[in-house]
Amino acid sequence: MTVLTRNIATQLLIDQGPVVIIPDIYTSIDDGAFCCNYYDEGAYNRFTLPLESIYIPEGVTEIGEGAFRGRYDLTSITIPDSVITIGRYAFDEVPLKEIEFGEGIKYIGDSAFEEQRVRSILLGNSVKYIGYSAFEGWSGGSETEFVSIPRSAKDGFIASDAFPANANIFFRGMPKDILLDGMSFDENSGDNHIVAAISTEDYLGDTHVYSLISGTLDTDNIVFSIDGNQLKIIKKPDFESKTH
Question: pLDDT value at position 206?
């Protein structure tokens, strides 16, 4: 792992100015790397190096704790697909108005984007952990209106205050599985016999409606019906005639 340290970050700011392109040789951005970067021109002449734009290349897998904390001039960020972990306070006190998340992110630490100002948050399908106050709005009031998270994130951890209270949170994606509690039935069963109860393994516990659909292997649809969550055979089965 090649780590971009604070000393390296400071030199990048000196060499490139407030618009920084991180070389693609680094795999990790160290804790506090771009948080407090100063340039000294003598004992009493010290100033903070500004940062207005940052390019994070593919290949970086981790953004450390407080890596960009307090960077008030930074208003947008693109996280590449290679990033897996975003540490605590990584972009805390950064007034981000645009955040583009890569598909690889699995872990977003506590207060990672606290005081962000984005209107919508779209997280990739890999995310498994979203920490406390991870996307809490700024002190002047939250501007986040919409959050999209994969249903699979429910298998991991989402803090109760990860997002602003007024944000509309949408869990996208299909339910995990559809289940039948029986796969066979007695030939001597009568008309409208219940073959199986249908249930859905769903991260959210939503209510579901079931129906028989047309398509491949739909030949036997005419002999079955669905009543609520019950799969029924319409007529008494006849083994000698056909097995369904």
Answer: 73
Task: With 0.85 as the threshold, say if the pTM is over it.
Answer: no
Strand pairing of 157-158 and 129-130? parallel
Retrieve residue 89's tokens.
């306070």
Give residue 117's Cα distance to chain centre.
18
Please tell me the predicted confidence (pLDDT) of residue 176.
72
* Angle in degrees, CA 51, 55, 61, rounded to 5: 115
| 8 Å CB contact between 110 and 132 | yes
DSSP structure string for 63-107: E-TTTTTT-TT--EEE--TT--EE-TTTTTT---SEEE--TT--E
**DSSP letter, residue 24:** T
On the question of pLDDT at 126 being above 80, the answer is yes
Residues of the chain with CATH 3.80.10.10: 3-172
pLDDT in tens, 139-174: 767 789 999 999 888 889 999 999 998 899 988 877
CATH annotation of 3-172: 3.80.10.10
Of the candidates 9, 4, 28, 36, the residue with the CA atom closest to the CA atom of residue 20: 9
CA distances 89 to 14, 64, 119, 131, 159, Å, are 24, 9, 20, 10, 15
**62, 28 contact by CB (below 8 A):** yes
Contact 241, 211 (CB under 8 A): no
pLDDT at 244 over 50: no
Q: Where are the beta strands (DSSP E) in 141-223?
A: 146-150, 157-158, 168-172, 177-180, 193-201
Burial label, 148 (beta-carbon count in 10 A; 0-12, 13-18, 19+) = middle
C-beta separation of 151 from 173 below 8 A: yes
Question: Whole-angstrom Cα distance, residue 99 to residue 108?
Answer: 13
